[in-house]
Batch of 2 targets.
Target 1
Amino acid sequence: MGEVVLRSENINKHFGITHAVQNVSLSFEKGEIHGLIGENGSGKSTYCNMLCGIYSISSGRFLLDGQELKVKTQVDANRSGVSIIVQETGTLSGLTVAENIFLGNESRFMHGGIKNTAAMNKEAQDLLDKYGFGRIKAPVMIDHYNFEDRKLVEIVKATYFNPKVVVVDETTTALNQSGREALFQHMNRIRNEGNTVIFISHNLSEVIEHTDRISILRDGELIDTVKSSEVTTDDLKRLMVGRELGGRYYRTDFGEPISDEVVLTVENVTVPGEIEDVSIQLHRGEILGIGGLSECGMHEVGKAIFGASYGRKGKVTLSNGTAVNSIPKAIKHSIAYASKDRDNEAVIIADSIRDNICLPSLNDLSTGKILKHSKLDKFAQENADRISVKMTGISQYVSNLSGGNKQKVVLARWLGKNSDILVLDSPTRGIDVKVKADIYALMGELKKQGKSIIMISEEIPELLGMADRILVMKDGKVNGEYVRNPKLGEEDLIAKMI
Amino acid sequence: MPEQSTLEKKKKNPTWLWNLTPLEKNNLTWLRNLTPLFGMIIIIAVFAFLTEGNIILPKNLKLMLSQAYVMMIASMGVFFIMTAGGLDFSQGSILGLSSIIFCWVSKTNILLAILAAIVTGAAMGAINGLFHVKFKIASFIVTICTMYLFRGLCEYFTTNGPIAASIQVVALNLTWLKLLLTGVVLLGGFLAFRYTRLGADIRAIGAGETAARYSGSRPDLTKFLIYVAAGAITGFASFINVVKVGAITGTAGSQLETQIMLALVLGGLPVSGGAKARFSNIVVGTITYCVLAVSLPMVLPDSATQQLVRGITFLIVVALTIDRKSLRVIK
């Protein structure tokens, strides 16, 4: 056992009703690269964001060298010796490379209120040269460099001051081979200097190869910490996703035949930069699951079917031959869509529950172009009640509702529209267990009524538990297809995703 | 026993507006909706007091009304635009140019002239809508540019002096006619806003354009149409404007755009538009504005002081009545 540099004690994070990180106690040693893995939403990024002052801690504490770490911002964290390279771009456009590197730390170049830009640029360039990124020039605007070079600048920014702990969050996905090697080289250098790297990645073989120990999170809880030399990728997969299947809120039926009647055909649909040549047939009364890693293009498939994609090529047709190529047309022909981006695309949060429920059905609700308000109220109330939205009344604004109740409003509007084809993207994202169960029950009921559902999901248990058929996507293409089967395991799907 | 302790707390802390829970505040939205109305009543009361009842004399009421017709009609178009989340600074220039066209055509036929003014206004609105929707330029930038463009045309056409309308037009300067036309236009707008899909779409687009698109609204088309409609409505208002003044100079209608937007905000319209827009904002706002505009000169004869007090009054009224929560969602 090496000397512990950083320890977390019972760290918790709540986002409203969601318990994202639950009592995580973990120790990191001096001079180690410590992998942190888990499914999407398992809490690994949230945990690190709390460490680095990006999120506040709900309860618990971090101890760095035995001292409690109290940081409110990323700059605070840097001063205490903790830094992070984030998943998304962490550089600010409109600033030069040097200004980005020394962001929040400009005072060292200030003399009597005047910034010595030349000195700043020189020091930044020296650092870039030292890191082997000499082709990046310090005085140039960051915007002139591509995404990958910006990531390299971030590596310098996060590590030049010799922090005791460096978090590398999913950075490798943005880098090509040479960039990755440079990153691993610097991770090793940091370790050899006696400091610590926390490495978050979905690429399990990469994690095993480059780390000393690995901790696994699942649903916000710490499952185990293992030695990298003693595990295989299969072991890790099992630890990551190995929860009991067939839990009580999923469907329990297997082997029920699906109708041969095709209600929706997607033919060779391509959306530039998102999906390529996707073809799908959806049957009557079928729940079709689409899974994959979050960037695999599956979310765009939902938009493409709903006519919401920009620059879509290929055809989406209904059984009667009607082509669906715009949102109003999709809605008119009984297609519903619940976006993953609930607050921006699925509901109008700055509007009432009534307006949100009525909006897609206004054409049906008007008698000769005239809207009757009593009719709208009744319609909204009935549909909100059908799925028991928790609210003070239909005039309440959606912005005041919890995530689960917002999703219920989304479902209520499509129940009201009586759509035959429902495209549900991440229907249970950020939703607590109880509402989750309600949503699964509703899906089962709709299936019984002969409605067809496309469920796009990043949660593998949900796909296995609810879908009649599962398509797995990778890099914008369909990479595998599975029929509902009790023997089907999460490993099978993961194999086609990665 | 937790229930009892909250009860005791309630007793110790009486419920005031500032220590309500979000839920309780939500239940009080009706009160917020009435704030602009109270503002209007207070302003009328204050000025009635300051002018010793002068402002409610028939001749002054008539003066106020004469200012209100054009503004009320033109502000209806801007109301639609602002509800959908946009702004429009070009309405004053649109009024000026439509008025000039009206004057020219009125010498041939007055009905034809009204039609020509409406078409001119609609065409100018279409230019605004096209640049905003098709070329994706923020509405306030587009309309500030077209404000100068249309004003430039007004000044060009009036280089040789004001343009007079046909003599017959002046004969139409009848209070009942102006009242009737204003009423008809407002009623039409009200019905469209409240009882058709258009109104629901406009509010949804202002509250959240992307989500409205995903709900089946057509934001681009709708926004284009309301810019055209706003232009057409102001084109119609130019008829009443000419009836009132008889001849048009290059500066006709200037400042109208800012007056309209101030009036709407005074009337309680959130600057960012959206679901909280009420049609009554137009009426309440225009009346409040006109009362201020007519009463101030009576109380303060000096025009410099008038400007000063006008500015301060607007700031105070807006600060008291504006809905800050909805401001935060401006994109």
Note: Chain A has a mean pLDDT of 88.
Target 2
Amino acid sequence: MKIPFSYSLRNLWTRRLTTALTIAGMALVVFVFAAILMLAEGLQKTLVDTGSYDNVVVIRKAAGSEVQSGVERLQASIVETQPEIAIGQNGKPLLAKELVVLIMLPKRGSDKPSNVVIRGISESSMTLRPQVKLIEGRMPRRGSLEIIAGQSIAKRFKGGGIGETLRFGMRDWTVVGIFDAGNTGYASEIWGDVDQLMQAFRRPVYSSVIFKLRDSSEFEKIKERIETDPRLTLEALRETRYYEKQSEMMAKFLRILGMTLTIIFSLGAIIGAMITMYASVANRTGEIGTMRAIGFQRRSILTAFIIESLLLGFIGGFIGLFFASFLQLFTISTMNFQTFSELAFSFTLTLDITYKALLFSLIMGFVGGVLPAIRASRMNIVDALWAS
Amino acid sequence: MHILKLIFKNAFRHKLRTFLTVLGVTIAILAFGLLRTVISAWYAGVNASSASRLVTRNSISLIFPLPLSYQEKIRQIQGVKTVSYGNWFGGIYIDEKNFFANYAVEPKTYLELYPEIVIPPDQKAAFFRERKGAVAGIKLAAKYGWKIGDLITLKGTIFPGNWDFVLRGIYKGRDETVDETAFVFHWNYLNETLKQTIPRRADQVGWYMIGVSNPNLAADVAVRIDKAFKNSLAETLTETEKSFQLSFISMTEAIVIAIQLVSFVIIFIIMAVVANTMAMTARERIGEYAVFKTLGFSGFHISGLIFGESIFVTMLGAALGIFLTFPVAKIFSQELSTYFPVFNVATETIYMDIAASLLVALVAGIFPSWRAINIRIADGLRRIG
């Protein structure tokens, strides 16, 4: 015969303080667990959204990132003539020769300097990145000292708002537009005319060449051709792969930190659950004896205690997730170790994370409760009744 | 004396529960100590830097170089004693995973400016003599099994090509705050090669390191240097080495804050666990407390018993945790040397461990002792666990 579910529920209610403390411990652990998963997911999402699969980034061999790379004008022109490049509506190849450098800008409020990516763009740069949309103002005119700023820059950096000016490269640059780039890395960038910026920074070379493939399957072919051409010392990468590589170190760091913390924290919470469940078994020795005496089986008692402990875990997990979901309102901005530039990403809650967190909390409850439950089910009827 | 004995006996009445609680506290204090150590490792570069050194770099950002010709101009500025310069090389050893700091410097002035880098005299002389010579930190050399005279090839990321070096020296840090995982070589080797391959990038340095004659006037010297290059093609930004390092850390501030928050969360978790143990203990003994009261002991005595037990159990766990922090930190420093070249457990960390565990013990004792004090004797005697 089964012991009713309400028995387990009521037991938790009877020992309110203990239950609340155990649940609080569990909730904190699940909160941290979910927060770390959400952070990793946010980083991943930012990267996936930033790159597009059909775009190819060409940088100097072994440079690793656009900032470190240099592509000579002649080399860029050779890349431009490849037949695999898609043709745009105006009949020109969908290809942009870009300059990417870092500049130091002070943040609004705190005045702390941070490295910001500034990108010199060509005509096709916008078309190549459909996720970037101008939301305010206009595009910079070619050949003028005008720039547009990503939303995240406009909000957080001094002189980044529309109509304001930034000074670098011995010139004053006016912000004439703000662009929205959603969750992508471009949101933390400033864009301006490539030729003007090259002059200002006295860099006679491009940083990268970006183009769209005519046919996605031709990537291997063009990669092979570019990388074996003796005139070019360049390498070609799919844009998605390129951005993934950019934050491998950050992702690995988050992973190591997350795993270590989760393991340590869950040990703490499991111990908490175990203490609670052992106590609740010990306090109810007489009760257990009575139940056995009136005919409940060992298995039913085992189940009742495990259910009690699973309930602890589930409620803790639910509360932890509830609070973790508010983290979605926050955006983390930090320096990417690999590129030395700003990288902003937000906590992202997905259904998958919800399942994982709840499963995790149930596992914690189970592991914490299984030993005490076995002890309860193994009690000898006579001894147990004697104890009370 | 009797009260201590009672506390001790009480603590071990439920051996399993006490064992689990102590284990929980041990794990929590260990984790707390490690997280605090991660934070201090983050600031290791700042602690190792000296206030009497200045760093001059391009005011646009670190990726823009400064002309070599600035060296003489800086030397002429009042208050400047030594001028050295270097470039971040960013070379890769075999695979991207094997990351370590490597830069090209002007060796003589560099070693003069950084007395904390200790190289045996014969190795130093050999390093100065050979243009392809390089010096590596003792930890780095141990990691890859390098010996003096070994040929090391780095793949350039900023400066294209494969670069060969001969290991001529292995340095040690003067004390444990010094990064022993760096790789340093002749700036001239880099420059002479660039003159042949990419002439437009030759004769340019990443940053100047400046020793000042009087550290108290470092700020004035910095202003003077920046003023000298105002409105030139490459304007400079000069700051003390400390604030230079701090500016890097402030960019990763979000991560530091997150780790700090998490380290407090673990204290809250363990607080819940210990408070739970104490609450259960007190509930079971409420009858005993009533007996104590009947015998004439005051509420003060009873709460002393509860707090005493709470502190005893927590401190036992904390002591174990602190004891374990050192060997575990050792393992961590080997595994994570890529991220944290310097990973030492600071004395302040131990104090914080003790403070945190005391806090946990006290908070855990509050509620049970409040209940024990306030319960009426008759109620206490009537109650069954």
Note: Residues 33 and 349 of chain B are 6 Å apart (CA to CA).
